[in-house]
Recover the amino acids of this structure.
DNA sequence: AATCTATTGCAAACGATTTGCATTTAAAAA
DNA sequence: TTTTTAAATGCAAATCGTTTGCAATAGATT
């Protein structure tokens, strides 16, 4: 049982080379800003906002707008997953090749700590819902909120 | 088995009088705009955006800003529940006295039709998550997306 | 090395939501 | 009922996240 298993949530860091070749395969250019952004995402197991990425970047590495554009592109080619914590700010997480990145989070409403939740429950439920209402291609968006151990009292 | 049961999703329309007295109890003034807004919400079983409410209002009844302020206030006193369908626009639904309004929706990604989902599944799951990670006061936000019967092909 | 086109930076536009402030008005007091 | 008082409104302007236009730059291909 080694650590290179296929648990999509093991968060083994993807190699930068693997990431760039993935980009190349999509006929996208590997630019300085993009490499830097991927490098940051690679080291963060939790969803990051565009601003947070921007802040991590060496000063002047690239414009905030470029990050917005890069994230949209990375989402399009399926390299990152966009999450919505309901605060009006998009967050992104790098996902593994082949994975669709579907999972959930538990967010502390006080300190904003984020826990990645491995299990995805409502999958069985989706089928039930889909057929109950005649919908197809049903997916869901689910996030949990609460007080983390450190913030309780 | 009459229709005035206590199923919180039966959507029996709340009386305007009951609504205003609820407001009065909270030491809020019953104004023209507020009565008009409540009147609209009363007749809509699905979440409405501020703009949608504005559009329903008799022309010149009140400013859009007033609606924003009213909805925030109504949310504070627990008379409406705010929903987030992930498109960057807040939606509101009137909730019954005593109810916390917690429920979910199934939204057609093509025509935006909204189905109210009565059952709330992850309640049992919340407990599991809460204790697994030591969080307290855990809640969740869950919405389903898919293609409604009419939009499939 | 030359070419071609995607990508970037910067400024400006956008859409949802909030805020400041002077004016109006519902509700409490007289 | 009139007076008083604080809350609510309208309007303009500000804010915040995100997108877009455009000319300049720079990967990738030849």
């Amino acid at each position: 049982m080694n650590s290179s298993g296929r648990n999509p949530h093991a968060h083994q860091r993807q190699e930068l080379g693997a990431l760039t070749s993935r980009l190349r395969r999509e006929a996208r250019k590997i630019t300085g800003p993009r490499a830097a952004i991927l490098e940051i995402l690679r080291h963060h197991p939790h969803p990051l906002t565009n601003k947070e990425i921007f802040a991590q970047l060496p000063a002047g590495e690239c414009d905030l707008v470029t990050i917005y554009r890069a994230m949209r592109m990375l989402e399009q080619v399926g390299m990152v997953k966009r999450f919505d914590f309901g605060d009006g700010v998009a967050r992104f997480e790098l996902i593994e090749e082949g994975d669709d990145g579907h999972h959930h989070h538990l967010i502390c409403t006080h300190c904003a700590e984020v826990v990645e939740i491995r299990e995805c429950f409502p999958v069985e439920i989706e089928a039930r819902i889909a057929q109950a209402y005649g919908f197809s291609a049903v997916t869901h968006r689910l996030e949990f909120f609460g007080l983390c151990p450190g913030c309780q009292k």
In short: Strands of chain B lie at 48-49, 80-84, 90-94, 104-108, 114-117, 136-147. Residues 1-10 of chain B have pLDDT under 50 and may be disordered. Residues 64-76 of chain B form the longest helix (13 residues).
